[in-house]
C-alpha cells in the first residue's frame, strides 16, 4: 500500500475526470482518493465528479494491490502536471 498527499495542479473538468478514471482502470490495484473527508474509488467517474475537485485541491491518494506503486506514480503524475487552460 502506498499513500501520497498532494495538491492537484491540473485543471480538471469532465474530460480530465474521465481521463483520470480511464488511467486508474489500467491498474489492477485499488485506487482511492480522499478529499474533504470523502473517500472515493478513482475508477468511478461518478465518484470523482461528486468531489468537485479543482486545481489547487489538496487530496490524499492511496493505492493498494499488485501494481500499487506504478498506479500511485502514474496517477500522481497525471494530477500534478500543470496543463495550460
UniProtKB/TrEMBL annotation:
This is Phosphocarrier protein. GO terms for cellular component: cytoplasm. PROSITE patterns: PTS_HPR_DOM (PS51350). InterPro entries: HPr (IPR050399), HPr-like (IPR000032), HPr-like_sf (IPR035895). It is found in: Cytoplasm. It holds the Pfam family PTS-HPr. It comes from the Bacteria. It comes from Gracilibacillus ureilyticus. Its main location: cytoplasm.
Amino acid at each position: 500500500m502506498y499513500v501520497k498527499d498532494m495538491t492537484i495542479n491540473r485543471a480538471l473538468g469532465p474530460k480530465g475526470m474521465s481521463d483520470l478514471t480511464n488511467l486508474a482502470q489500467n491498474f489492477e490495484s485499488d485506487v482511492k482518493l480522499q478529499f474533504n473527508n470523502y473517500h472515493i474509488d478513482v475508477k468511478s467517474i461518478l465518484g470523482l465528479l461528486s468531489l468537485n475537485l479543482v486545481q489547487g485541491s489538496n487530496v490524499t491518494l492511496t493505492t493498494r494491490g499488485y501494481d500499487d506503486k506504478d498506479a500511485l506514480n502514474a496517477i500522481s503524475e497525471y494530477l500534478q502536471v500543470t496543463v495550460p487552460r
